[in-house]
Amino acid sequence: MKTLTRYIGREVLAAILLIFAALIMLFAFFDLIAELGEVGKASYTLSTAFLYVGLQLPSRMYELFPVAALIGTLFAISQLVSNSEYTVMRASGASLLQVTWALVRVGIPLALVTFLAGEFVAPPAERIARQVRAQAKGDTATITAQQFQSGFWFKQDLTVVNIRGVLADMTLVGVRLYQFDNDLRLTTIRVAESGNFAGDGVWKLANVSTTELGSGEAKLTRQDTWAWDTVLRPSLLTVFQVAPEKLELGTLWENMRVLGSGSQKTSRFEIAFWNKLFFPAAVIVMMVLALPFSYFQRRSGGVGFRIFVGTMLGLAFFLVGRLFSNLGILNDWSPLFSAVFPLAMFVAVTAALLWRLERR
């Protein structure tokens, strides 16, 4: 049985890597075509476009791995079925559970690689890609994941903060601090042109105008610099450059903690956090899901038809996941439910199909 397990694993792994490479090249080609329209603007050259697309590859790899696992497994098992190898395996005493375990043994290290890529490789590469693109195009502040059109808002104790934008080097632009007293009356408005992180939780704000609201009068003062001590860290501002779905678990957790302490909504960050944890398991689920769909007779369609089925299944998984993430944010569903339900649904479908296949 060990020889059989190794043989199935080798065939499936080779097919997955082949499909994965094909998908990566295809999507990289599409990304490059999309970037060609920007070439020539400011200092955005063709080499910069190639660099930007290359830096986005880790994110593409992370997103495409479950789909590649599904199509690759579907292709490999279909080949075994078409060559009657699968029939010989079953006739020789190999159970469906043993074949499934052969797939899971390959899927576990692939899921681990997916998690490591999504946690340690894709997020920094995505940030560098955004910075390269923004600097080459001369953008002063590229906000790709802002909460509102007016910028980023958060609350700390009795202070409400608004940041209009963030530069590629994490310099704050257009900082406004609204200070309230214990009776929630506005007492101070502080406006800064820019701000840079000085370390130890302190931001050095430049060109600061402070308006103190007293009883019946307002006092305006100006300062070249002002030290702002806050819980805000540069890592929390990565949402300005990279969508929460592409951030590290630590950064997501920090955003949830800080925004939650100010009674702000953290649904998107929580859903992204749980999605990040459970997404690698989708690699294993997709591989097992391919098993019942690959067991067709020749008259039911060839390899091309099976690859089409796999592509549609992968697309369905992707769309259902996105749908529940957005519905969870809009309807205030439990973040854990919004992240896990699509995966649980596909697990249930897989179990039902395997049970039906075994009964046949």
Offer a quick outline of the entry.
The chain is 59% helix and 17% strand. It is α+β, with helices and mostly antiparallel strands.
How is this structure best described in words?
It is a single chain. This protein has 360 residues and is of the alpha+beta class. It folds into 2 domains: 2-138 and 271-359, no CATH class; 152-240, no CATH class. It contains 9 helices and 6 strands. Strands 1-2-3-4-5-6 form a 6-stranded antiparallel β-sheet, covered by helices on one side. The longest helix has 42 residues, at 96-137. The radius of gyration is 26 Å and the shape is elongated.
Total beta-strand segments: 6
The level of helicity is 55-70%
Poorly predicted ranges (pLDDT <50, ≥5 residues)? 140-147
The averaged pLDDT comes out at 85
Structural class: alpha+beta
Layout of helices and strands, plus pairs?
Layout: H1 2-36, H2 46-82, H3 85-91, H4 96-137, E1 152-156, E2 159-166, E3 172-180, E4 186-199, E5 202-213, E6 218-229, H5 249-261, H6 267-278, H7 281-294, H8 303-331, H9 335-359
Antiparallel strand pairs: 1-2, 2-3, 3-4, 4-5, 5-6
Helix pairs in contact: 1-2, 1-4, 2-4, 2-7, 2-8, 4-7, 5-6, 6-8, 6-9, 7-8, 7-9, 8-9
